[in-house]
Amino acid sequence: MSEVPYSNKRPQFGNRFLTEEDNVFEHNAWDDVEWDEVQEKEAQNKVDKNSEVKLETDVIEKYEKEADKFWDAFSIFIRTDFSRIGIDFSTKAIDILKTTKEYDENRCKAFVLDATQNNWDVPFEENSIDIIVLIFVLSAINPEKLQHIVKQIYSYLRPGGLVLFRDYGRYDLAQLRFKSGRCLGENFYVRGDGTRVYFFTQDEVKSLFEKEGFEEVENRADRRLQVNRGRLLKMYRVWIQAKYKKPQ
Ligand SMILES: C[S@@+](CC[C@H](N)C(=O)[O-])C[C@H]1O[C@@H](n2cnc3c(N)ncnc32)[C@H](O)[C@@H]1O
Prior knowledge:
about 25% helix, 10 strands, tRNA (cytidine-3-)-methyltransferase activity, methyltransferase, transferase
């Protein structure tokens, strides 16, 4: 089984803040850690290094064309408590969701959709959806196609409707850990199991949504320091969390 490429688990999250007096190895995790210029530079150096070699165009195209197959394979390992997916382009992910006992067609509809398609064939009207939740979804998609997806999202949300976004941030541990030879494009990589991942900055997220007319409600970098106390390792996680509203 391949490594689960992301985690929504929030270990002891909340409000443990690291101060100069604290021993960093005293706890498993610290919230809202500050990054200084040196750390930022070191992270950029690692990214430069693991992005030096780009994959061949035909390999990049294969991952683009067959993306659903790779997510299908990944979805076999998805936990079945995965109750928030309504739309996915992995047939397997949708099948798994539909077999959970909580799945109730009267309250929720799950269906397969490739969100990069020009026209969405969906069982609801434009201007009708209250909330769209994008949790670790946009990072799985070719960044060149994201603007179109955000445009579609805008058209299906009702005026006043919200998008809730949480995804990988630039220089997250997962990005710095990539070895050379996995890079598809700037800040875009392919994992060993064939699934792809993009790492966002706050500004990119802002621009994606504001370009389509959304109003920003929140856009923050959630920076957590996770500590392996046994091996005295420090692991910096970065996620972007944002909320955008379609004007009334
Ligand atoms: C990292 S998983 C996140 C799943 C879920 N949101 C969660 O938080 O557990 C990314 C999901 O995006 C889906 N995905 C990737 N490309 C897509 C596309 N073009 N259209 C729709 N869904 C896509 C994958 O099938 C996969 O289920």
